[in-house]
Amino acid sequence: MERVAFRAMGTDVELLLDAFPSAESDRALARARAELERLEAALSRFRPDSELSALNRFGALRAGRDLVRVTQLALAARARTGGRFDPTVHDALVAAGYDRSFELLANGASTAARAPAACGGRVCVDARTGEIELGEGVRLDLGGIGKGYAVDRACELLAAAGPCLVNAGGDLAVRGGPWPVGVETPQGTLTLELTRGAIATSGTDRRRWTTRGGGEQHHLIDPRTGWPAESDLVQVTVVAGCAVEAEVLAKALFLAGEERALTEADELGAACLLVTADGRVLTAGGLQ
Q1: Counting Cβ atoms within 10 Å, is residue 41 exposed (0-12), middle (13-18) or buried (19+)?
Q2: How far apart are CA 53 and CA 136, in angstroms?
Q3: The domain 2-284 is classified under which CATH number: 1.10.3720.10, 3.10.520.10, 3.30.460.10, 3.40.50.1580?
Q4: Per-residue pLDDT tens for 8-34?
Q5: Helices (H) and strands (E) in the chain, counts
């Protein structure tokens, strides 16, 4: 088993390749790592030299293929989730105090939380020219879906050398297998077995910070209010065909709340695990 671990996208990343060490396996691991780092450089809102930062700064940009594709995926997700997944939460995150990378927030209080910012703004993408245009006052955050896209791309590259797993802070994709994957819950670790596909988790127990006003905030914005979400769920883990889809469904089901999430997951056949605010662990969408 070959393994490479490093920091990227504000989290710990692990690449696992079920192959004997060789020049080919080393090249595959290097390609997968380089792809993750390349996509972070293009899609991070925290890097002033990224394509996404340029788009947010100028309001329009002739973008590269990856920024165009991730923006299209995010807008399609906004449409099919009724706005529960929304890439235009950038200003709402900043207003809540998430104004720098989480590593920096963890080392000191953020700015004081401000009034919530509106979400749901206009975003136009011309796939033919690569032009992306934002409505007035609109800025994008592609953190979750961008990470899912990067994990999927790295996994595709790594799979050319054998069965593999790419894990970015608990959001992961596999090809080949089976791979046992542990999910932490209040009732202990539950192990899911994946042969292909992806897992992503959304929850308020991760990425929390304290503002200078003394309040505590988290990163899951409810686009309907512009505030960090209030839910009777604290964690949603979804198994899907790819990490992008798992990211979208985890956020949308979290915002739906327990009752609606159970119904939607069953209707969609989206295998998921829900942890409620009172500590119950529920399964839906065919997950046993």
Answers
A1: middle
A2: 16
A3: 3.10.520.10
A4: 998 999 999 999 999 999 999 999 999
A5: 8, 15
Where do we find the tokens 């293929």?
Answer: 65
* Contacts for 240 with CB less than 8 Å, ≥ 6 apart: 197, 198, 199, 200, 246, 249, 270, 271
CA–CA gap between residue 230 and residue 242 (Å, rounded): 27
Cα 31 to Cα 33: distance, rounded to the nearest angstrom: 5
φ, ψ for residue 40 (rounded to 5)? -60, -40
Asked whether residue 139 carries a pLDDT value surpassing 80, the answer given is yes
Helix runs in the chain, H state only: 23-43, 51-58, 65-80, 90-95, 102-105, 143-159, 243-256, 258-268
Domain boundaries in the chain? 2-284
Q: CB under 8 Å to 263, separation ≥6 — which residues? A: none
**Per-residue pLDDT tens over the stretch 235-253:** 999 999 999 999 999 999 9
